[in-house]
Known about the structure:
binds nickel (II) ion; alpha+beta; globular; three-stranded antiparallel beta sheet; 4 helices; five-stranded antiparallel beta sheet
Amino acid sequence: MTIHSILRMGDPRLLESASLVDPALITTSQVQALIDDLLETMYSVNGAGLAAPQIGINQQVVVFGFEKNLRYPLAESIPETILINPIITPLNDLQEEDWEGCLSVPGIRAKVPRFTQIRYQGLDRFGQRIDRTVEDFHARVVQHECDHLIGKLFPMRVKDFTHFGFTDILFPELSATPPAE
Length: 181
Ligand code: NI
């Protein structure tokens, strides 16, 4: 397993649409190694989630989940999830703005509107179907990670730039906890 460096906003690879993974290839060592690398890289920087394009792999694989997250201390826990070829369906029109950051946009936070209740489907690392209905922060994280698969970074979703700024100014208490973005 390898901890990868994470591409930062401005890198054109973050703007591409990722390719579907052939379900027959999920259990190959190549895809399994990608999944392990994503998990290890995410945990090494206390991320809530990470998408394959962020380590320069243009495939539809995201990982997310945590028990307790230093970057989002108030967030409810999310089970560790490997999600391949995801499809998101909002359950209604309700959206809410809340704070987000991104490992590819270090040091910045903004309030981003997201659907509050969604269904998401896809495949796990064994090629088994995932089909979940979730809300709030879990729904937010899934939408954020899946946005990476269509070349969207959270600043591109911001509507109100009065809630956009540097993490250490907005949340000085977070900068005391390593890694201080
Ligand atoms: Ni991100």
